[in-house]
Amino acid sequence: MTIGILLFAHGSRDPNWKRPFESILSQTQAQAAGPVALAFLESMQPDFHEGITSLVASGAQAIRVVPLFLASGSHLRADLPELIAQAKAERPDLDISIATAIGESQVIQESIARYAAGC
Amino acid sequence: MTIGILLFAHGSRDPNWKRPFESILSQTQAQAAGPVALAFLESMQPDFHEGITSLVASGAQAIRVVPLFLASGSHLRADLPELIAQAKAERPDLDISIATAIGESQVIQESIARYAAGC
To answer: Which residue among A35, B30, B68, B75 is least packed, with the fewest CB closer than 10 Å?
Structure first.
């Protein structure tokens, strides 16, 4: 089964804001077995729906959403489940799962702590 | 010279939002040679001023601010320099530097990409 990865970030009206996320996208694409796309909650394109559509067009039969958020606020607890419910209503056969937000991942926390400590 | 590290995060009205940052704080404290504090831009305590004050009280003679932000928007380009200017006006002898925001650090980007790709 081809699993697509949807990197999901907040978005900003500042066009330069997306650069780190585009860099993470290209680095993830270089490592993932299946298609990878980047989508934004607000203010930037592509949006969640467009991200899902592009992954399906690239052959994804299931999708893993990776929230590029440091903490789980209302965006991840309310907005994202609603977006996923809409996507499932359109594509009932598509399995969509949500990974732990990056900031809540132990391995990412360790990486941030090492960077902050200057190690 | 004792260098204090100030982890600087956005903040949220949701009290649970700060948990990943508190975890990063304790992991950074376990690795850093000097004192480490966590401060928030808005909606949470301690604020930037309180964070600086606690690091100085802990013996910091210089401070490295590590922005726990994934990208540099107006918070890092406008709000943070203003907070630093205020702190320097109060403590002209205190050297305060700003690290690259975590999301713009190559090593953190690599860690996020590995996590996202499921490697």
So the answer is: B30
